[in-house]
Structure formats: C-alpha cells, structure tokens
Amino acid sequence: MEVTVQVSDPEVARLCEARQILNRVGDKWSIAVIYALDGATLRFTELRREVHGISQRMLTATLRTLERDGLVRRTVHPVVPPRVDYELTDLGNTLRGTVCTLMTWAVNHADDIAKARAEYDARPAS
Amino acid sequence: MEVTVQVSDPEVARLCEARQILNRVGDKWSIAVIYALDGATLRFTELRREVHGISQRMLTATLRTLERDGLVRRTVHPVVPPRVDYELTDLGNTLRGTVCTLMTWAVNHADDIAKARAEYDARPAS
DNA sequence: CTGGATCCTATAGGATACTG
DNA sequence: CAGTATCCTATAGGATCCAG
Fold first, then answer.
1. Which of A51, A57, A58, B44 gives the lowest tally of CB atoms within 10 Å of its CB?
2. Strand D within 7 A of B83 CB
3. Which residues does the UniProt record annotate as the domain HTH hxlR-type (chains A, B) (predicted)?
C-alpha cells in the first residue's frame, strides 16, 4: 500500500512511519526469513527448505522486499545452474537480536497463549 | 486462518507454531496497541487517540484477539456511560521490552530504509 | 536452480450506520 | 462511551506453468 499519512505532530508522524516499517518487517514471512538468515548465508533453495511452508512466490517476494529495504543482500553468481546467495546486511544484522528474541518469546509462550485461548473460548458468552 | 500444519520434526513444528503466533502479534495493529499500552491503562477512546489511524472496527478486533491470547486484560466498569479499561497482563508484559525495542529500531532506522529503497528503485532494471 | 507471469480465492480491513 | 453489524474493496498469498 505504502500510504503516506499527513500528521502535524512530528512525533506522531514518526510513530506512524515506524508502524508502516514494522508492518512490512512483521509480515507473514519476513521474520522467518530473517531468522533463517541469522548468521548464515543461504541459497534460495536452502532458504525454502529452512522456512517451512513458504511458497516459491512468497519467498521471492519477501526476499525482494527485504533486499529493497536494505536488510538482505542478494549475490548472484554467474554460473550454470544459477547460484544466488542471500545474507543479512549490516542493517539487517541490527534486527537479528530482536527477531531472535521474538522467536524465542513465541516458542516459550506458545503454551501460555494456547491456554489463554482455551480459557477465553470456554468463557460463557457474556 | 489458524491452520495447523503437521510436521514430523518437533523442532520444526515449534518454529511453525511460533511463526503463527508472531503473525498474529505482528499483524497490522497489535504491535501499536501493545506499544500504546506499555505501562499504561487506557480506555477504548484513549487507545483510539493513541493509535493514530486505527478504525474503531480494527481496534475492537485487535483488542479482542489480544485479550483472547492472554496479552491484554479488559476490565468493564458497570457505569453509565460505559467505561472499559485495557492493560497488559503479565504475559503481555513479557512482550513489552521487545515491542519497544522494535518500535525504537523502526524509528531509528526509518531513514536507512528509505535510503535503501531509493537506491534500489534507482538501480537500472537488471 | 532461481525465479517471473498468471490466475484465483480468502481475507484483511476501511466506511458507515446503529445500539445499550 | 464502547462497541456490533453490514457492506465493500483491495490485497495477500497459494497453485501452477513457463524460462534462462
């Protein structure tokens, strides 16, 4: 979408801009791809194996966007068959820690969330 | 959607589950709402003012999901006019730090990303 | 192997109007 | 005030086929 919102308060504008960025980075696959590239250089197919369930189309799209945003570096080796490597850029690396923290948080609290959902769903419809 | 994927490898299964959770938490508005509730108890309308651009419908939906996931506590005061307070639960608080880090990261690197995009778009179409 | 191009569907999410 | 209900559109994203 990439909608630009005009707001008078510059602080608010910054937060809105930040939200847009996070919406991008936090889309369905980006986090998983960044997580997979944590400290590793991977080829397209390797990434596809690593990020289970991603379609070819979305892996391509996600990588393109991450590359455009300067988070991932794409290196094409002029060989046959083609070989393309993906790795995090310096900017991408500034996200590594947080993304890993996020993943760990999700893994560690999956049960809590599942439990909370079960309780919520079991509550009598007010 | 809430698709359950069957995978043999339990480690992979955990990561897939984590991804689903992050997809939820990382949806268009959740991060912003959690960020707004960072250390604060807010009413519906206050939240709406705080999270600029969110529609009433999406604020309600986001809050419901966060409540169901056990991240946000909703307290209804039986008064007229109605008063409903929202705050982070203990579980929600375990996300505060990371969410704030994320927001800060986005604010701090918005320029880098904008620059990267401009460069990418200026590149000759390979 | 690494994609691009197409097609198609489900869904997210905005706008608006109504209610206890 | 704090929602719910309805309607509608854009878009995300999967499946599939093709290509250098």
1. A57
2. yes
3. 16-114
